[in-house]
């Protein structure tokens, strides 16, 4: 039996039910920053104007997009759905406008990778590519989703996948081992001399999807070391690996170091390996893939070659 409130597909939506497209840039800015204040600064609006536009969008959709907490914003489930759709739509519009706008051809490379690869490995090195290619704009779509390169008009992807599933050329395979700040290593009351000493420290870990153990990022190393029943003093969970790494640099606990992703922090002595035992191979790696359409884009090919050269240097 059909629902009584569902209107036939041929019946046009009432004006009050139509999506306000003019509100999407404001929502996009607020969703990226998780702050009405920062979104207002980006858009050159007042904080109250941003808040009012978000409220209008929520009213038109009939559902909240943000959970307002004390001094914090969190996307609701509906907000996460709208953020992905809005980001995709705005990127497509920006690409389309660049193609139809008269004038010099826009030299651009659009790439996708994980958040951790972008913030911990790529961005610290990106200035070297910009120096050798000053007229090329690099657009980075950081996401844990495996994005379709053709559908999203992306030129290059760096995939973090099991080695058996790697496509394209391997940049490097992953090895993991515990890392902490030098100050934590010298802790007088709870020094870190052997793996069993971890029981007196805070484990920093990244939340995993449902069905995975909360410490699954640590499991390969625990298994190699025979520490199947290891229980640390307490655990701090993060949604992004880069945040767990920042907590380790600040001396708040021990993180499982994914190398060579964190090699520069180790070289700078911001993080150190507390034990002499070697790392554990995860049988996962980073692979660079060039989209079929991008083989006609010399800048995309240069960027992929630059990634491989940087991986060799690392």
**What's the CATH first level of the largest domain?**
Alpha Beta
CATH architecture heading of the largest domain: 3-Layer(aba) Sandwich
The secondary-structure element order is: HHHEEHEHEEEHEHEHEHEH
Instruction: Give me the CATH superfamily of the largest domain.
Output: Periplasmic binding protein-like II
Cα radius of gyration in angstroms = 23 Å
Fraction of residues in helix: 25-40%
How many β-strands, per DSSP? 10
Overall average residue pLDDT: 86
* Approximate shape: globular
Structural class: alpha/beta
Please work out how many helical segments DSSP would assign.
10
- Uncertain segments are 1-10
Written description of the protein model:
With 314 residues, this protein is α/β, with parallel strands linked by helices. It has three domains: 15-96, Arc Repressor Mutant, subunit A, CATH 1.10.10.10; 103-171 and 285-313, 3-Layer(aba) Sandwich (D-Maltodextrin-Binding Protein, domain 2); 173-281, 3-Layer(aba) Sandwich (D-Maltodextrin-Binding Protein, domain 2), CATH 3.40.190.10. It contains ten helices and ten strands. The strands form two sheets. An eight-stranded mixed β-sheet has the order 4-3-5-10-6-9-7-8. A two-stranded antiparallel ribbon has the order 1-2. The radius of gyration is 23 Å and the shape is globular. 27% of the residues are buried.
